[in-house]
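Researcher: Sequence recovery benchmark, item below. Answer with residues only.
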């Protein structure tokens, strides 16, 4: 028998042995499915790549780019993490309670460790809280917190400037040690930790993180700064995973696999309620009835948004309890509201402002068309961002297209507080503003606030935006990432 035929015979025997279910040395039967599972669970230390911005800090208290904030969720845990419905789930925290309306008590789990092996205790929470309050990432969300007091090694009490029954949902900041590691990185307690080797940065497994055995033991970071470049990198396979918040729209066609991510970014129509034609409640009601929110979602945002049928995010329980808007326009009711306003046809003039961002411009054009169908005359002003902000701040508008990212507690303070960043044109002493304050203080139910809002319509929610997770098509494992927890089930991911 020649060597060639002998080789072919041995190969055939090997294939038959493997796939026909022969027994191993321990007598256990091996089948094809088990072999495939073994291949899938092979540890990978080189092929998984994610973008980051070298020009931005990897210190979670200094980071400003979404790029870096996304990957930092792998290295740093928080007291709570918000799920896909924006409900708080304990992470480092074990439990919470409100001993009084302006006090929040949090107990943390014992036995947790940082990536360097040191124990995690209340003093680390206190330190991290003080850092986070001054950070660009969490500073705004923690504005209503005045201080924190350590009760014991595993218990703290946070003091609030004003009552907030959902304040625990804001405790999502990174928990770190006060000291840095030898390479200058913050020490966290997350699933991975930052390292630097041969001039490049990577994330490697945190050996002190319990019950975590992913296929990707190392995540290599690739320096890519602009969102356009990130889109291109995921399309050509230079990176394995990317998150795009689509704030500026998508400039290129995404060729990779994608998963939609619901965001807490509210796109709304601001209204000048203090004077002019829009001071009239029936005019505001007519504007609301003329809006076709579903069309704006499909056209201006290409379907990457959820129609706002409530003030609150459609994915939350609050939204399901408080739906007051329609997705489609009701032109006959809008015209009846105009008739009830007392304004003549010639007086139905509105100035509509927007900046030059793609989504808001497209929204403004649709709003103009929809309001003109109802009988209004609309002057649309598309302004550069700095001028737009100045005009809105100084009240040079009847209506404007705005966007704001609500904090995890779904607070609307920015609309109803005189110093709020989205309060322009709204009377802070209005019935709705007072009803909202009463609701937060526990003096009335949310229904009273919603009723006041329906009567006054101080601003008009249009939609809540979405982003997308992009990942290479060869990546398997049921992608489950979502806002704030983009790598939620990374331990299940693997390559074919």
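Model:
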């Amino acid at each position: 028998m020649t060597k060639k035929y002998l080789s072919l015979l041995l190969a055939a025997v090997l294939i038959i042995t493997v796939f026909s279910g022969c027994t191993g040395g321990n007598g256990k039967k091996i089948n094809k499915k088990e072999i495939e599972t073994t291949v899938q669970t092979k540890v990978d230390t080189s092929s998984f790549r994610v973008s980051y911005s070298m020009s931005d800090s990897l210190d979670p208290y200094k980071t400003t780019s979404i790029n870096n904030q996304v990957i930092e969720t792998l290295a740093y845990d928080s007291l709570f993490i918000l799920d896909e419905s924006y409900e708080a789930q304990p992470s480092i925290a074990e439990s919470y309670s409100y001993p009084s309306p302006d006090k929040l008590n949090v107990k943390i789990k014992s036995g947790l460790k940082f990536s360097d092996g040191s124990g995690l205790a209340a003093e680390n929470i206190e330190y991290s809280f003080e850092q986070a309050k001054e950070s660009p990432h969490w500073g705004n969300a923690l504005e209503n917190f005045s201080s924190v007091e350590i009760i014991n090694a595993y218990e703290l009490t946070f003091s609030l400037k004003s009552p907030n029954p959902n304040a625990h949902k804001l405790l999502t900041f990174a928990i770190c040690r006060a000291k840095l590691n030898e390479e200058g990185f913050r020490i966290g307690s997350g699933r991975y930790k930052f390292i630097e080797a041969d001039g490049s940065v990577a994330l490697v497994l945190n050996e002190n993180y319990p019950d975590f055995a992913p296929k990707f033991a190392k995540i290599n970071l690739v320096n890519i700064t602009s969102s356009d470049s990130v889109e291109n990198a995921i399309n050509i396979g230079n990176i394995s995973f990317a998150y795009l918040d689509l704030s500026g729209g998508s400039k290129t066609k995404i060729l990779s696999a994608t998963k939609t991510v619901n965001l807490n970014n509210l796109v709304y129509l601001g209204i000048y309620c203090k004077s002019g034609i829009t001071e009239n409640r029936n005019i505001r009601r007519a504007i609301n009835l003329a809006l076709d929110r579903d069309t704006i979602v499909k056209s201006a945002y290409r379907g990457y948004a959820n129609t706002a049928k409530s003030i609150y995010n459609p994915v939350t329980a609050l939204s399901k309890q408080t739906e007051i808007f329609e997705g489609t326009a009701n032109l006959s009711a809008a015209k009846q509201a105009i008739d009830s306003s007392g304004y003549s046809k010639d007086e139905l003039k509105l100035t509509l402002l927007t900046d030059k961002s793609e989504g808001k411009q497209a929204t403004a054009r649709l709003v103009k068309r929809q309001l003109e169908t109802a009988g209004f005359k609309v002057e649309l002003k598309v302004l550069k961002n700095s001028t737009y902000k100045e005009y809105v701040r100084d009240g040079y508008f009847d209506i404007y297209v705005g966007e704001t990212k609500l904090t995890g507690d779904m607070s609307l303070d920015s609309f109803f507080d005189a110093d709020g960043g989205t309060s322009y044109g709204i009377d802070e002493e209005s019935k709705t503003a007072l009803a909202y304050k009463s609701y937060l203080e526990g003096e009335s139910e949310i229904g009273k606030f919603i009723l006041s809002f329906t009567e006054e319509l101080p601003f008009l929610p249009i939609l809540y935006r979405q982003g997308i997770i992009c990942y290479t098509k060869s990546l398997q494992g049921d992608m489950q990432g979502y806002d704030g927890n983009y790598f939620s089930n990374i331990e299940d991911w693997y390559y074919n």
